[in-house]
Structures are given as C-alpha cells and as structure tokens.
Write a structure and sequence with these properties.
Number of domains: 1
Radius of gyration: 22 Å
Number of strands: 4
Distance between the termini: 75 Å
Structural class: alpha+beta
C-alpha cells in the first residue's frame, strides 16, 4: 500500500497542475467595458460612474440620476478599438432610450476614450474612462 501512495500523490499533483492557468491579475478592457455597458443599460449610474476618472464621475451622475422617467431600451458599442501597445482604447457607446411621458425612442452617442491605469509590477492595472460624457439628452 505504501509503495503506491507516493506515485499516486505525484500523479494527482501532475494532473491537477494541468488544470492550472495563468492568474488574471486585473480585468481586461473587454470585461471592463462590458461591465460599464451593463451598468448603463440597467440604469446603475452609481456603478457606471466608478469607471470614470474621479473628476468626471459627478458629471455622469448629474446628467442621469435625476431622470426618474428615463427608460433605457438598449445599450451597445458600435465599435471598439483596442491599442495594447499604448494601453488605450476608443469606443462608441449608443444608448437607446425614451423619456416618459414621451414614447419616442432616441439614441444618445458617447465617443469614449479608455486608458489602462497601471497599478504596480504585480498587477496589470485597470481600465478607466477618460473625459466626461456629453450632455444628456
């Protein structure tokens, strides 16, 4: 029994190491922009504001938080261009909405600039929206 224990443990360790993958030390652009998009889509403007620079967060909140009659129909990116070398990305957010009592559906467009904000040597950093949103509506 003892002669099979050590080889069994070594085999188990070997097999489990095959399941290991690189640890993602920071969210990538795709996941960050998707999370921001979902926050906007579901009118979580407090959550969406956390993706902006500190000085632009209040501008987003001032544009949207007082609109109790805002109904967002859809949110999507028309395009998204990532530049890994520069640590930047450009995208165009299209928010389809209507503002009660009107039922007329409109689009609001935001040309976005994202930047990778480095953390330290151990982490890749995080993506952050640069600039303030355009006025709404």
């Amino acid at each position: 029994m003892k002669k099979y224990f050590l080889p069994s443990v070594l085999l188990l360790v070997f097999l489990l190491s095959g399941c290991a993958r690189k640890v993602d030390l920071g969210p990538g652009y795709q996941s960050m922009s998707a999370n921001f998009l979902q926050a906007m889509r579901w009118t979580d403007f407090q959550g969406a504001a956390t993706y902006l620079t500190v000085d632009n967060r209040q501008k987003l909140l001032a544009s949207f938080e007082q609109l109790d009659d805002l109904q967002i129909v859809d949110a999507e990116y028309r395009y998204s261009r990532l530049n890994k070398k520069m640590g930047t990305a450009q995208s165009e957010l299209i928010l389809t909405y209507y503002l009660l009592p009107s039922t007329r559906v409109k689009d609001w467009v935001w040309q976005q600039d994202w930047a990778l904000i480095p953390a330290d040597r151990k982490q890749r950093g995080t993506w952050q929206l640069q600039g303030a949103p355009p006025s709404f509506p």
